[in-house]
Amino acid sequence: MTINFCIVNLFCVGLLITFGATDNVTSTLKKRDTILIGNLIFSSYGFLNDACKFAEQAVLDVNNAANLFPLFRLELDQCLPNDSVVGVNTKLWDYIYRGHDTPFILIPWIDEDTTIPVCAVWGCIVNSIGMQSDFDAKTYKYYTKAVAENSDVSLVFDAIIQHFKWEKMGIITANNDIMPNAASVFREKLAERNIESYADVLFASESHDVPDVIWEPLKGLRIFVSFALLEVDFAKVLCKLHELGLYGRHHVLLAFYYPFATLDLIDKANHGCNSSQALEVLEGAIVCSQFVSTTLGIFTGHRHFSTNKTYDDLAHILKPTTPSTARHYQALLYDNMWAIALAINTTIQKYGIDEVKNYKHNSDKNKTLLESLYKNLLEEDFDGVSGL
């Protein structure tokens, strides 16, 4: 995201505080209208709890930027204590039907199968950290995401297949709660052009003992599409292709790839080949990952256009056990909250603050307002702590 760093605004705030105008700033904060941001993110997982903390910090920082947002302040509902489907649906029902109205709803990255279609009908903007569900490949109105989804990788694979007009291929899928859905999206795209895979290998995820017989259908093929996210699964695919001799200049591998994988630790005892053999299979392969865009965001020196904060400045929010590779979710959600605030700021120039503050899901006349909020949200462009 690219907006020039705004030195003037920061300097003006500094002058107000320096010369004793703190009371004026405090008075402005108290007078502003409050706009609710709905929240269905649950905090029972460590990295999602960290994401909640980053969202809360973003709201605090937005609300302190009275010079940028003089007419309103944000209020973020608390994160849910657990990932209960009943809890999520109950709170969603409160937003949609019981008058707890809000045009924006945050959702976590997994299993929100209800929120998106409901909001598509009733009219609320779903802001997802990233999602892996039955709905992630379908287009829903008023849906945005901070992180690419597994199905986005499937769509990239399909675009490559179309470009080269390949029709004879094998699909390799690790059988867990993530990859089969992504593979299913890919098959659906192939089916739209009346293409079926010549071989479909489904192997037990995280298993070191995969029967050789299930790999036999791959023999004789040149194009392979692999859906194996976990490191041990990806290593199994690479080693098995090496064992069968299905690599080199006459073969093409399209692989779902986890950029934090430590491929140099692949060994014959645990995976079936050594790291150099695995890398032979990867040579010339086309790899794609939902994490590539967020990998760029783990660099910690990007400064926010308004607060001048970097990710490192916010890192104290994280729990000590948080894996460093999961940090991209937090930075992106922090920036997402700022994007919402900026979109509201742009929208109230046309509709006024009361229209946004008093948004009602059950009123058709508000849908033009929602269209404007959604359009402005998609068009926001600024320098954030994620570097994107």
UniProtKB/TrEMBL annotation:
Residues 1-22 form the signal peptide. The keyword Signal applies. It is found in: Membrane. Keywords: G-protein coupled receptor, Glycoprotein, Membrane, Receptor, Signal, Transducer, Transmembrane, Transmembrane helix. InterPro entries: ANF_lig-bd_rcpt, GPCR3_GABA-B, Peripla_BP_I. GO terms for cellular component: G protein-coupled receptor heterodimeric complex. Residues 115-387 form the Receptor ligand binding region domain. SUPFAM superfamilies: Periplasmic binding protein-like I. This is Receptor ligand binding region domain-containing protein. It comes from Owenia fusiformis. The lineage of its organism: Eukaryota, Metazoa, Spiralia, Lophotrochozoa, Annelida.
